Amino acid sequence: MKVVVLGAKGQLGRCLSDQLVGTIHDVTLAAREEIDIADLEGVKAKLLTLNPDVVINASAYTAVDKAEEEADKANEVNNVAVGNLAQICASINSVLIHISTDYVFDGLASVAYKENVEPNPQSVYGKTKLLGELAIQESGCNYLIIRTAWVFSEYGNNFLKTMLRLGKERDELSIVGDQVGCPTYAQDIARAIVTMLTGIESHNVSWGIYHYCGEEVTSWFSFAEAIFEEAKQLGLIINSPQLTEITTLEFPTLAKRPAFSVLDTSNIQATWSVQPSDWKSAIRKSLLA
Fold first, then answer.
1. Angle between helices 279-288 and 220-233 (to 10 degrees)
2. Which residues are catalytic?
3. Mind listing the pLDDT tens digit for each residue in 177-198?
4. 207: exposed, middle or buried (C-beta count within 10 Å: 0-12, 13-18, 19+)?
5. Which candidate, 64, 108, 147, places its Cα nearest to that of 258?
6. Backbone angles phi and psi of 184, in degrees to 5
């Protein structure tokens, strides 16, 4: 199949590049410089020329706090551009695989969010991502939307990279402990998408929204502990900083974070035989990469 990856220089885009190497697919990796999804005419012209079977949209406006001050820009990328992309895919009969987020939920649940739970985003980022989802569903294209959470890897900017950087700069770190979720290794998301491509190729597909994340619930504080412990075991650091667990109220941010970001992955497991991300072993993989 002919596959186009948008956002190829981002964290997930680079992992998709890793996982698609060696597959039978004809892959075009497009960074924003090559295809900017906010440029409607440019996207349309490129996709009409490439005529892909599948478009994977790994690009997004992901600056969660900045989005509160740049709502129009976040909406342009996460909603308007996504809707346009979906309509283009519908017109050329291409499948759209799109990455969404746990931020479409309010974080007030006490059990893992299933795909059919009514979204209720609390931030500009979450609202624009939800609008993008709705635009895809209204476009008429065949789509797979993957909601994920707490994404990290050896690439880009993420919590793991931030902890390592701050750990070198400071002797003490205060980490929020009352927000819980399931860290997700971006390479595992990419592998799940490759599995989905096989299903698309064999015409064995249940279109719709799927949740994919890590297999074990943790807090940001415990996640940080695991990162520094692994780094110490690997000899990457001699001493880890002293970690202090704090509350969300003690660490105010412009955008409201969901207190509970646990996604139910049973649907993607049953439908695609995709296992949840093993984030604990992925910490080591990311550190060794």
1. 50
2. 125
3. 999 999 999 999 999 999 999 9
4. middle
5. 108
6. -135, 125
